[in-house]
Amino acid sequence: PNRTCGISPMLNRTTLDPETRVLYGDSLQPPPGYVFDAAVATTFSLDFETALAAPVSLALFAAEDRDDILAHPLALLEGAERIAGRLVVFADAGHLHAQSRPHSRLCSLLERIIVEVAAPRNGAFHPKMWALRYRPTRTDDPTLLRLLVLSRNLTRDRSWDISLRLDGELTRRPDAKNRPLSDLLSRLPDLAVAGISDEARALTAELADDIRRAKWTTPDRFDDVTFAVNGFGTKVWQPAPCARLGVISPFCDTSALDLLASLPMAEKPIIISRPDQLACVDAATLDAFERVSVLDEMAASEDGEEVSTSALQGLHAKAFIAEIGWDTVLTIGSGNATRPALLSGNNVELFASLQGKRSKVGSVEQIMGDKGFGRLTRTFVPSELDPVDPSVVTAEARLDEARRALCRGGLRLRCERIESEDGDAHPWRVWLIPTAPLPLSNIASLTVWPITRGDGHASDVLEALRSGTPVDLGAMPIVDLTRFLAFRLVAENDLASALFSTSLIMEGLPPERHAAILRWMIDSRDAFFRYLRLLLSELGDPFSAALAAQEGSGATAWTVAADDAPLLEDMVRALCRGGERLHAIERLMTRLEAGNDTGSDPIPADFRTLWDAFRIALRDQGVDHAG
Length: 627
Prior knowledge:
By secondary structure, this protein is α+β, with helices and mostly antiparallel strands. The protein has 20 helices and 25 strands. The C terminus is likely disordered.
């Protein structure tokens, strides 16, 4: 998150200056005097931990990085609870990250947020965007909107990326320039591969209408902003003829670079890409570029320090910089210099183009040269890497075909209550049900497990899915039930492998599963009281929320509070403000009591007595407990 070059109305430094860093969480935070209201996000790939951290940034408090947020599991729980029904994340089907070890059971709460989709023309669903709405705390202030156009996915990647942030007001008048954004949002629900809830569909339509009526504040030094979307109609966005063109694209291929080099230009274009990609491009194509560069090895990590090999590093930013007349047009977004993005238009891609006077914005050389992003690069040496083995490319393509078949082949899950000799330890059995045989050719092995269980509970399902036979995925406790499955694919001759997750429709999922996860998390009086403090923290009060999430701020605060008001005073204050936070406590009490026939009770008896009095007060106020 700290490796994104940011463009926003507040930016006063050189465009794409690598010294200008933007924190992902900060980009989601509401402006002063506003609270988060709703959002729709799109991403190609996604990891569950980052997706769990996003609701905390939106609804509770921001942290320096994702790991700081993940250190507060109760905050993750309340973030998911508070954001439910107000956030939808659309991701490319089959590109949810998986791991061998068990994921947190809290990840199952993301079933209400994540919707997997497929590009309509069999390409990749590739846009990276956030459309956010903030409501004012004062009735006379306008509703605000924010648009984030990113080159990064919703993952823990530490790559060099680019972000554009636009802030604006919701008006009554549609703006034709917003039509591509609105159309993209409107189409998203119909791309879902495993269904979408009516709630998520309605929220997406609502944000699509709002974005169409947004009046954006143009970033400093730019005069105009326009948008384009590829992947739906016959029209495909490509860079326009210009005097000079600069390209930053981590992925590239010969056909797209031939197109870019053939544009009418006074000078040869320049490109910054990745060495493994450039090694596969025809030499004659690279000769058509004045300068071909790659990210210097010392810039591929944070100032050269070592980072986890599981996190993507290096160049991931995407930009096309064109000099047209007296202007510079900077186009950023999701599209690489590849055939699916720029020629066939099979990928769904989003582009935002900022236009400004070259004297203010800078030339291609100023932005990409030694005084700009180019100071992090070095000249590409064609002989430094061998092209990828064609047999490996073929194996990876076959894995992608199998991935598509698994994600779009109508697989379903069914869970059944069973009698167990262990009492209630493992009362649910899960079946993987194919609706028809799947053509999984050239695959050596395929294993599957629920993400909450880890690969120690993996099942070999290759032959069963090829024949269309149901597979028993094993018995498990209710808290491990999840729609998210992890798949590990291995190609023949072990030339390539893939590990990913996808969400399937689950029949027979018990409605009390959600309450069971809640009881699993809130398993002590300390956890109960810390969670109460989170519930009582107001939207827009990040300090109180962060304080409540800290260890040691729980049961002792019931009688003594060193850093803030006693809990009882917070509850009375919430009641006087209308009880919005208190009906969240009522939901918590109901869920903790539901079906809790075994195990310790985290709710103290004296608090139950106190809460009975608040229930009477809420009823007298006419507050709807079901909220």
